[in-house]
């Protein structure tokens, strides 16, 4: 069974000790995670990469408390009065089709003074370039704009910790690069604790303080690299020789993992 | 942060908008014309067939005679009286039963134990033809309006309840997870997630229920009633007055179509996110191009 603790020291935001997760799917039980251990320091930006289906989303949902681990220990921050401790950006379906853009952002804000909540929501919509679309419905937006609504909601909560599951995955390459720059600026300005799942090694190295590579299913930490580039960071670091080296190193390991999975399948 | 969206429509944009608006208006008009044309042609054919004796004008009187009869019955107050009696019975059963069906359905969809306790029982009752319980209701409540309104109410209740329940059960689990992740609980969860997510299917139930409600109201009026559209039709058969019977049938058809339309219009009102824009207001892409 999972044991849960509230974060006690200020340096740890999230921690997982020997966390395993068993799913009961159509073709019998399946280990999504096996003895996964991980430590996320407060104020750090941690990127998680790994082959598809290795349990990245599952790990994030366990850290958020949306899913119960089958065994192991989880440490997560507790909600304080004003802000929920964590805000989640989902891999898909992050916006509700029956709410307007503004109401979708308000959805994430705790009930209270309507005028203040609207002001906060509008501010974040403006910062993600969605001013003028407050009363539009999601089906009237492009995929990238919908994703920005989901990101605005997460930031608007004022939560100190953000858990993002491939928030830029559905975007075209150009929008994605612009959003990466924006995220970089937002996160550096806000000093939040971020756990960020992505499939893109470049994105992970550009945004993260640390990149954790998860093994093929059942997922556990395969390798971990510290990203040495200073902040504030600009997208130009991608031309750095060290960046290219790190990227190759990660790809080497990842290729192995994807390979074992293919071989088993 | 950069401002990506410029909301200006240039001349080309205006042009495209006008063309799109014209196209949609033309499509809408064509639909209306077609919808009117088909029944009109059918009635004309009937009129012609009855006048040249292809069909028996005693059992299939030409539409003009039915129309004359209808005007006469409206003038004498007979048709409005019967129509009013039917509408009152129908609404008297429909409105409370639909409200109760939605509430019970939502509750059964939200609380698994309640759904398990009542689901199979309700499914069995749902399958029972409601008109078959009318004798029982007459036995219990006597010959007044109560058993007739109850028969309508029972029909409507089960249809709306079953649709509301399955609407809640079919909500995407990821949507519920989103609510949980953002601490949206209780009343807010009901108003922001459960109800809007179930509205489309709830309205399907409400539309089906209104049609069935008309059927059951007319059917219960066949038996031991002295006013109402059902009584009108039945009595016309007994007195062999085919024109009067056709007036009753037309009134029943129009009533069903009107009420279904009212329910649909209500659905359009409460689900703004499902509306297609009526006029082609352009969406702006990043550099101000018009993207329709
Ligand atoms: N609710 C569930 N029931 C059964 N199996 C599940 C469930 N959720 C996830 N799984 C399984 O657990 C494994 C890990 O899923 P998860 O969504 O965490 O992968 P992922 O690493 O996020 O993949 P991707 O990169 O493609 O999003 C998958 O094999 C999936 O089939
Ligand atoms: Mg995933």
UniProtKB/TrEMBL annotation, chain A:
Residues 17-241 form the ABC transporter domain. Coiled coil: none annotated. InterPro entries: AAA+_ATPase, ABC_transporter-like_ATP-bd, ABC_transporter-like_CS, ABC_transporter_ATP-bind, P-loop_NTPase. GO terms for molecular function: ATP binding; ATP hydrolysis activity. Transmembrane segments: none annotated. Keywords: ATP-binding, Nucleotide-binding, Transport. It comes from the Bacteria. This is Nitrate ABC transporter ATP-binding protein. It comes from Longimycelium tulufanense.
TrEMBL record, chain B:
Gene3D superfamilies: MetI-like. This is Nitrate ABC transporter permease. It comes from Longimycelium tulufanense. The keyword Transmembrane applies. It is found in: Cell membrane. The keyword Membrane applies. Its main location: membrane. One of its GO terms (cellular component) is plasma membrane.
